[in-house]
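Milestone 3.1: sequence recovery, worked example.
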């Protein structure tokens, strides 16, 4: 499955959801998760993300492996999102920030 990683936290641009053919994105307060049981590995979402937050599970960057389990876990309870929405007002302040896991809201 594909995995949403650190760059998405507090940016949440949601361009990714528009292209997913199986609607497997789930929405949290400041992050999106992909349901690994639904993702068909089409890779279409990767190019849509302005901050490059989406990777195939086997290519998740070193240090971000926790996001693999997090996507699976969070996708179970978060609601589906299929239409793009406005990003957080301060998204630009967070686009270059690393190690944002501590800011991820459940
Ligand atoms: Fe959806 Fe394809 Fe991205 Fe999986 S890889 S989340 S199926 S757009
Ligand atoms: Fe997040 Fe990128 Fe989608 S910031 S919401 S993975 S477009």
């Amino acid at each position: 499955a594909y995995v949403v990683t650190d760059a998405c936290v507090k940016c949440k641009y949601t361009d990714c959801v528009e292209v997913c053919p199986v609607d497997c994105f789930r929405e949290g307060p400041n992050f999106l998760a992909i349901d690994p049981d639904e993702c068909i590995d089409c890779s279409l979402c990767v190019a849509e993300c302005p901050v490059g937050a989406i990777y195939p599970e086997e290519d998740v960057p070193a240090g971000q492996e926790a996001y693999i389990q997090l996507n699976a876990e969070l996708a179970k309870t978060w609601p589906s999102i299929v239409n793009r929405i406005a990003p957080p007002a301060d998204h630009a302040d967070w686009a270059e920030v690393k190690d944002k896991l501590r800011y991820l809201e459940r």
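Helices lie at 66-75, 91-94. The longest strand covers residues 2-4.
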